[in-house]
Structure formats: structure tokens, C-alpha cells
Amino acid sequence: xxxxxxxxxxxxxxxxxxxxxxxxxxxxxxxxxxxxxxxxxxxxxxxxxxxxxxxxxxxxxxxxxxxxxxxxxxxxxxxxxxxxxxxxxxxxxxxxxxxxxxxxxxxxxxxxxxxxxxxxxxxxxxxxxxxxxxxxxxxxxxxxxxxxxxxxxxxxxxxxxxxxxxxxxxxxxxxxxxxxxxxxxxxxxxxxxxxxxxxxxxxxxxxxxxxxxxxxxxxxxxxxxxxxxxxxxxxxxxxxxxxxxxxxxxxxxxxxxxxxxxxxxxxxxxxxxx
Length: 274
Description:
Strand order of the largest sheet: 4-3-5
Number of helices: 14
Distance between the termini: 54 Å
Helix content: 55-70%
Number of strands: 5
Oligomer: single chain
Shape: globular
Largest sheet: 3 strands, mixed
């Protein structure tokens, strides 16, 4: 049984051993599906037709988790090339313009790459499926505060905490434990959240620049480290629950706005499609 400093030392050593490819699955399956379900409701008619032409019967909720599932593939693309696509690094006190992207790329450069595929009339359907699934996933990633890392702890993966006495790390808390604590399915949670969307709120969330999303996440990130004994219980959940819900809602609304822009109808409606 690990306790105190010994446990924290073990977590850091273990995290370094498994490497960055195991690091980040933003929002977990439930959270990603919530963002996809919200986006599905706000697609323009043109975007809905294009999504159906690319994905067939697969909706955005189903597509949203595919890039994480494929990280188990031994293919070089999934093991090496695509690994950095899931996160951005913006150190505290810096802007993205100041630090830019590393040579291997990040979530922001990957979004640009995959958007270009969707806009390429010469790209094949399989290429567009890969691109669309990644776009859906990465927009979710960029709205999870710890997917904009500070460059010191692998987005909270090396920051050991306990969640109701369970030894874990802060990244996992924000990826999945806070969402799972709701004990709701993705369809239940997305439905509850969408009932809170007003025309004014949707209109205010039309920002489709991923640098803005990452900058927002960096600002939130710097407020969510628990400090002290690093014990996360009901008080922490009470303090941050609304942030989790707003970021899921923003990711879904902005995902629709982004796809509507890609598919030539940039003006997102202010109510879900029937």
C-alpha cells in the first residue's frame, strides 16, 4: 500500500514510464459523447448532409471517441504521429502566440490539418472519415482544461490526488471522474445540459478559433489545482461542477459552429434542429 510521499513518487515514476501516449483521453467516453450529441443538435442542414455522407449512420457522439479507441492500434500513425494531436502546451504567463506548436504538432495544428482534408474535394471518403472523427474529438479535447497543459506535469497526469480516497491524478479527475460522478448516461447528461441553452448563450459561443478555446482552458487550468492535501471530495466537486458543464456545452455548440463553417454555412441556428 502506497502512502504520502512514497505514493506520489510512485505515481510520477509510473507516469514517466508509460509515457505521454497514455496521458490524455479528455472527458472520457461519456464526456466526449455529450459534446458530440450537443453538436448533432445544432448542425446546419448543409453540415448534417455532409456529415451523413461521410459517416453514414454514425453520429457525432459515436465518432467522438474513435481517436482514443484507435490509440490501442500498433500502427505507427496511432502510436507516434497522432499522439501529440490530443493536447496543447501553454505555460502559465505565456500565450499560444509566444510558445507556438512543437515540431510534431499539437491539437491546434491537427485541427487545421484535418479541416483541410474535409475541404479538399479530392480527398477520399476514408480520409474524410478520419478527419471528421478527429475534428469532433479534438474540439472536445481543447475544452478540457488540462488538455492545455502548463508544460510541467503532463496536463495533471503527474499531479497525484485522491478522489474520495481513491489514488489517482488530476488529469483523470477532469477527464472522467467528475463527469462519471453525475451517474448519468451521455444521452441523459447532454439532454439535461441542452435544456439550459438559450438563444443568447448559443449566440455568445460562436467562437471557432481553437487558439481562443485553448487560451480559455489555460486560464481555467490555473484555478483547478487543489493544493493542500490534494484530497478531492464534495467541496471540490461543488466548486467546479459548473465549469465542467459549461465546457461540455461550449464544446458541443462550437463543434457545430466549426462544422457549419467547414461545410459552408457559418451561421449556426439558435435552436436545435428537429
